[in-house]
Amino acid sequence: MTDSVTLNVIATVDSPYKEKFAIPRQPGIVSAAQGQLRLKGSANNIELVRGLEQFSHIWLLFVFHGTQAQGWKPLVRPPRLGGNKKLGVLATRSTFRPNPIGMSVVKLDRIEHQLTAHKESQVVLHISELDLLDGTPIVDIKPYVPYADIIEDAHGGYAHQQPSNDIHIIFTDASATIIEENLTSYPTLRLLIEQVLSQDPRPAYKQQSTDDKIYGMTLHEFNIQWQFDGGDIIKVLSVEVSKG
Ligand code: SAH
To answer: Which of 124, 149, 174 is a domain's end point?
Structure first.
């Protein structure tokens, strides 16, 4: 019997989400979010993923490394309840859990076996629809098995359906121009910005309200500023390549 376990990190995530703000609250919501998993250490071996390419989706088990240091609480306020009602942490998908383990189903686009300039082998899984912070440590990868994982008559309490926001996204000419200029490297940047903003990334207590604050977020290497422009329109004010 043991009260603690040690896990090895088997991969890390390259994600367009460089900070927590504006990451969707579940995977699948932002289809234009694309990232990579790089297998690590003894798990960086193409044999570990033999056959995985037959699956359209995979489960990722990961560590909430960005909030891990903040510890956990027995009661949390889920954003779905407007942030003003407390529920038991195990009744939520909060990141502040007794063990900071997250799980996400993501789309597996392809598996690539790279040989670096120094003839080192690197296994890369190209994924999309992710909801993970850049650098997230992955502790397990499993195929998504529809017959076992889809439960037709399941019901989802307070989070039964994906929240629907009827927000329209518009771009200033200047921001549209920068997006155009980066089309070769980031062909889906405009769609990514639209999808991220249409889920209203503001804190729960501000959702459904109008405010004129200018918000900033980082996607890939771009600093993006935006503002509400009336009740259901978000205007992208500027898109700049970050200097960092
Ligand atoms: N699908 C997962 C995550 C749900 S919480 C699960 O159900 O377990 C989703 C939030 O996790 C996102 O809004 C993002 O802000 C946060 N997140 C994603 N990766 C993270 C990381 N590595 N560390 C801390 N928080 C992270």
So the answer is: 149
pLDDT value, residue 244: 59
Is residue 106 domain-shared with residue 184, that is, in the same domain?
Answer: no
Q: Which range has the worst mean pLDDT, 78-82, 97-101, 131-135?
A: 78-82
In the chain, how many domains are there?
Answer: 2
Nearest CA to ligand 1 atom 8: 102
pLDDT digits (tens, 9 = 90+) for 58-70: 999 999 999 999 9
Ligand 1: distance of its center to the CA of 95 in Å?
6
- Check pocket membership of 66 for ligand 1, CB cut-off 6 A: yes
Name the pTM for this structure: 0.94
pLDDT at 144 over 70: yes
- Domain-embedded: residue 195: yes
CB-count burial class (<10 Å; 0-12, 13-18, 19+) for 157: exposed
Q: What tokens were used for 218?
A: 């980082």
Q: Is the CB of 64 under 6 A from ligand 1?
A: yes
CA–CA gap between residue 139 and residue 221 (Å, rounded): 26
Instruction: Answer yes or no: do 194 and 121 share one domain.
Output: no
**In a shared domain, residues 174 and 236:** yes
Could you list the residue range(s) of the whole structural domain that residue 204 is in?
Answer: 163-241
